[in-house]
Batch of 2 targets.
Target 1
Amino acid sequence: MKLAVPFYSSFAVPGHPLGVHCVETSLRMILSYFEPSESYSIEDLEKITDKQPGKGSWSFQWSIWFVEHGYEVKHYTVFNFDAFIQDGVDYIRRAYGDGIADFQEQTSDVEGARTLAKDYITKINIVSKRPTVNDIRLEMSRGFVVKPMVNGMVLNDKEGFEGHSVVVLEVDDSLIWFHDPGLPAFENRKMSHAKFQQAMDSFGGEMDVIRQSK
């Protein structure tokens, strides 16, 4: 059954025509699903993610906020948090290559993320593996809403790297449906398992799953 997750679009900001709020917009969708009587503005979400002006957002700050506000968060990754805390962007460059390292260095607060990571690893359930479409289906069957990180360029059949966040609605035997906050934004976007898996793998293998604590 397809999740009735509300859809919101990201938006362009000066110097970033594709926008830098895909994480905040994805979280807005998820919070609106679990808390339909509440209204979270982008400004609210920027506080939750501790977003820096013109920068993308890491998962550390918002994940801690969710746990402290009655949610369970699991994070799929093969990321070496100890190495990142020790070496910062140099670790990303060694493990994921220059393209991803340059993107993170230019569009996110790497030094701030290194500090937050120390608290993050004590509060979040880390699943030490690259996520697959089958993992998405499994976590959805457990009541989680799934927010994978993907390479947006792969989604849109372009060359290069763009870190991007989407929210999954449904998975069947061959297709996956998801809200893509963009830009460009696509509500209820449909894609083959193989193409979506390629987009996840091209990011490096990162996925968050979220549900309200029982």
Target 2
Amino acid sequence: MDRTEQQVYCPVCEKRQQDFEDFNGREKARCTHCGSLERHRSIWIYFKKMTDLFEKTDRTFLHIAPEPCFTDKFSPLFGSGYLTADLNMKTAMLKMDVMDIQFPDASFEIIYNSHVLEHVEDYLRALREFYRVLAPSGWMILLIPDRTVEKTYRFAQKSPSGHIWKFGCDFIDRLEEAGFRVKLRTVSEIATARQIRSMALKKKQEIFHCYK
């Protein structure tokens, strides 16, 4: 077997390594070079294969809760059109409450947020705000934790990881009620079995591609 077959590969930083490192109780989850996790590697593949993100960089791009493994890539590509925002992250360009986005209607052509809504007090209001500030021709990529229940419910108290909501199979209904058209795909639809193994992806990871 070729030596590269025994190594793992991160598509974000494009580096091979002997193995990924354990993270937050998950074995072999984080890239030792750029810090990407399974979901970051998955969405990077999705951006490359299923969107024109890297082909048209003269657009406005709102990145919520910006991951360090992505910001250094996106910032030089999109320049002044790229905005990172978060309520608490000091590294974000702008302090922003997604329940009350202080931008006019149709301000952004791309919105990306991953594992954000489960922390938001009123996630339905946040979805309506995302819809409001998304341009008519724009799109939003959204990731949430695995849906393992039928109906979304609120935790009696915050989980140890700060989650307020447990999203269920009805989440797509909530997106549609906010106005979005939704295409749902899983990693197994966009990555080969070999890629899933070599990049340590979660094949059932869901990606919500939302349009106006």
